[in-house]
Design the sequence.
């Protein structure tokens, strides 16, 4: 469903934030994208979501080129940034409605989804309040409900567990599993390696903009733990 | 002291250079230099025009006085809006108040920041005037010393008054449930009070003249520090110099001491948000709209949630309305002034020229500010969210332009209708006025949007930095003024060459072509720029 071919992103004509990166994520897979701070995770995700232009390479979403058909690609994707910046002057519900309008989600579908996820993340009572009054976790939940309410096939999450309470982390993992069970796929970055190891089918470790290892979780981890593999690769100076 | 210095450094870094363009240092330096030199040249030119006829009479210092008064008004107007954004609504409030820094130090740093910008404005506007004065009068060394002291002290009182006005606006607004709306209304009331005062300045001036015993006395009555400065450049008097320093510095220190006591209280109360709570918890408001409608609703809500944005951009339509409404009551007076021997127009000439006059007024009003010149920048940290959505860039532009049109066009049309009735305008002229009221604001919006796409400022501490100090806004205001002058000039030139009806047809076709060209540029260059910005 997601195919990244030789992606290269250069900042200020000199800094190669992502360097010749290739990845493939199939439907039914949860993919963990891990790496140290500044390795290029968020840049890759932003390129994947069409937020950043990239110099070289190609990104295919459901066999469609992101560069040639950005709207069709974005329509089946949902994105949750690491630090959601929402329209603070809107209420939570107005914001979710805004996102649904952008994805042209039918009213019945959005009603079902909003009610379902608002119940799940226990946020119904504050959805009619202005976002400016929300805590970081609440904003994260609203952004998550907005991302899920249009039934995306591909869920792209940047550090999704930061700021969420344990119950919500549990529910989010459940949502991710449900989505891949229905034929979708999840691509997320995280620093919580235990979660990534237990939850994901595939993993890639990025360092200095390059993939240092990737593949099926059991192949990458082998008889070690993901933490150990990560630390070995992260410490391994070129 | 070290803390204050570090804080100040962090606060002004990247903020002082409004023309900073990512990765394009040379363009940035060129634009900064060009704009500064241009303004300095204009200031020099006007000071020359004023000083040369006054020089033989020994009155060239009057030009210094007039420019000082103009600068005081400019600084005051600037700081009324700035004080709210910089002192109360800054995004780094939480960060700074969590650190082991005295609240008074935070206040001092923010006021120094205001002062630094004011000094830059003083240098740009006042130094050319001083140069001209020096060239004409060859004054003694005391002139230089007194002028430097005067320039250092000049912004202090406007800052104090502006901060107090900003505080009053903030205090009034926090009493209301809809704080931002209250802030917009109270700010507008203050702005209009200043405008009304400016309109009546002639009358006030006449009263002062009647009571003043000399020109210096008159100046002192208008604004004491300027009066003292004029006295001091003519004759150095230590006592007057001390008075000048004391009346500027003592209120400033007292203000900081008093204000810092209540500073965090004001900020805390202004942070309380109004929750539009619906009693029942059911999610009853799940609605569905088209993409464009939703984007426009978002734009409108966003616009009215930023008081400084509204206050800065809504003056043009309100002034257009006030102008036409004022005409209803002052029509006879206007006609008698225009038909007076000094101006010498006949009634038929007034009727003939009235449509052009209205368009000139609209053009000038539009050049005051631009809604769209900061609309991309104000997306700020939400810009990636907007880019990640499956919507066409064209739709985003359209929603921003429609907000511009919704705010401007109805007011201009109402104003036009009143004007049409008062001046009994008929036939093609009605069409000319109404179409202009639709096309001109839209073109103004397109230009603002394009400039903002070229020079966005997505990182800022307060919206004030975008609305008042960003490069796109400065370029847009200057660009609009130049365009307005060119348009009015070319119109006047053409009036003597072609007949009125042909002129109107040329004008309407011309503006329509400009609108279409700008639309084309937005949909090609604009879309690419939107994608490039990150």
Sequence:
């Amino acid at each position: 469903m997601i195919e990244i071919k030789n992606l290269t992103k250069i900042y200020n004509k000199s800094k190669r934030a992502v360097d010749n990166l290739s990845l493939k994520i199939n439907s039914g897979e949860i993919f963990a994208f891990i790496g140290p701070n500044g390795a290029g995770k968020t840049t890759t995700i932003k390129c994947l979501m069409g937020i950043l232009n990239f110099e070289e390479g190609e990104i295919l979403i459901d066999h469609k080129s992101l560069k040639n058909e950005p709207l069709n690609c974005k329509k089946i994707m949902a994105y949750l940034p690491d630090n959601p910046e929402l329209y603070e002057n809107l209420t939570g519900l107005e914001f979710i409605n805004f996102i649904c309008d952008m994805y042209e989600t039918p009213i019945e579908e959005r009603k079902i989804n909003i009610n379902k996820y608002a119940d799940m993340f226990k946020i119904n009572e504050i959805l009619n309040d202005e976002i400016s009054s929300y805590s970081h976790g609440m904003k994260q939940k609203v952004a998550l409900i907005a991302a899920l309410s249009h039934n995306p096939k591909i869920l792209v999450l940047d550090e999704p567990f930061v700021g969420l309470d344990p119950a919500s982390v549990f529910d989010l993992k459940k949502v991710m599993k449900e989505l891949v069970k229905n034929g979708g796929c999840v691509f997320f970055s995280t620093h919580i390696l235990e979660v990534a190891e237990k939850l994901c089918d595939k993993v890639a470790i990025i360092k200095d903009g390059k993939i240092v290892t990737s593949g099926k979780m059991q192949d990458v981890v082998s008889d070690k733990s993901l933490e150990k593999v990560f630390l070995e690769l992260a410490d391994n100076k070129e | 002291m070290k803390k204050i210095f570090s804080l100040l450094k962090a606060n002004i870094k990247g903020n002082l250079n409004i023309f900073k363009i990512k990765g394009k240092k040379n363009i940035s330096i060129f634009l900064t230099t060009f704009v500064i030199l241009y303004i300095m040249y204009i200031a020099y030119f006007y000071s020359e025009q004023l000083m040369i006829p006054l020089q033989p009479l020994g009155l060239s210092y009057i030009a210094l006085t007039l420019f000082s008064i103009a600068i005081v008004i400019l600084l005051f107007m600037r700081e009324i809006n700035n004080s709210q954004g910089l002192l109360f609504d800054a995004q780094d409030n939480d960060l700074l108040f969590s650190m082991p820094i005295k609240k008074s130090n935070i206040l001092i740093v923010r006021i120094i920041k205001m002062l630094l910008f004011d000094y830059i404005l003083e240098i740009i506007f006042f130094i050319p005037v001083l140069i001209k004065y020096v060239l004409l009068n060859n004054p003694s060394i005391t002139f230089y010393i007194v002028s430097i002291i005067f320039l250092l002290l000049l912004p202090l009182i406007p800052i104090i008054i502006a901060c107090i006005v900003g505080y009053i606006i903030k205090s009034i607004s926090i009493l209301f449930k809809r704080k931002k709306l209250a802030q917009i209304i109270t700010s507008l009331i203050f702005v209009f009070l200043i405008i009304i005062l400016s309109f009546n300045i002639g009358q006030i001036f006449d009263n002062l003249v009647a009571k003043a015993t000399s020109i210096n006395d008159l100046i002192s009555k208008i604004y004491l520090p300027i009066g003292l400065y004029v006295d001091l450049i003519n004759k150095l008097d230590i006592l007057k110099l001390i008075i000048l320093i004391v009346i500027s510095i003592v209120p400033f220190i007292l203000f900081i001491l008093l204000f810092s006591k209540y500073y965090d209280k004001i900020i805390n109360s202004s942070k309380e948000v109004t929750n539009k709570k619906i009693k029942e918890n059911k999610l009853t408001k799940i609605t569905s709209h088209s993409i464009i409608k939703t984007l426009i609703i978002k734009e409108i809500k966003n616009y009215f949630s930023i008081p400084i944005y509204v206050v800065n951009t809504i003056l043009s339509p309100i002034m257009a309305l006030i102008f036409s409404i004022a005409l209803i009551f002052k029509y006879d007076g206007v006609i008698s002034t225009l038909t007076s021997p000094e101006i010498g127009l006949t009634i038929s000439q007034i009727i003939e020229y009235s449509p052009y006059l209205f368009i000139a007024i609209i053009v000038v009003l539009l050049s005051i500010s631009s809604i769209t010149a900061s609309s991309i920048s104000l997306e700020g940290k939400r810009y990636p969210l907007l880019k990640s959505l499956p919507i066409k860039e064209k739709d985003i532009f359209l929603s921003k332009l429609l907000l511009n049109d919704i705010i401007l066009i109805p007011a201009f049309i109402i104003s036009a209708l009143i004007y049409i009735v008062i001046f009994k305008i008929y036939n093609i002229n009605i069409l000319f006025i109404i179409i202009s009221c639709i096309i001109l604001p839209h073109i103004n919006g397109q230009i603002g949007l394009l400039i903002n796409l070229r020079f966005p400022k997505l990182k800022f501490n307060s919206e004030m930095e975008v609305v008042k100090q960003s490069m796109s806004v400065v370029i847009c205001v200057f660009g609009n003024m130049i365009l307005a002058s060119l348009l009015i000039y070319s119109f006047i030139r053409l009036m003597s060459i072609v007949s009125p009806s042909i002129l109107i047809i040329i004008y309407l076709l011309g503006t329509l072509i400009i609108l279409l060209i700008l639309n084309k540029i937005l949909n090609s260059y604009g879309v690419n720029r939107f994608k490039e910005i990150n």
Notes: The mean pLDDT of chain A is 90. Chain A touches chain B through 50 residues (CB under 8 Å). The radius of gyration of chain A is 18 Å. The domain at 1-76+156-164+186-238 of chain A is CATH 3.40.50.300 (Rossmann fold).
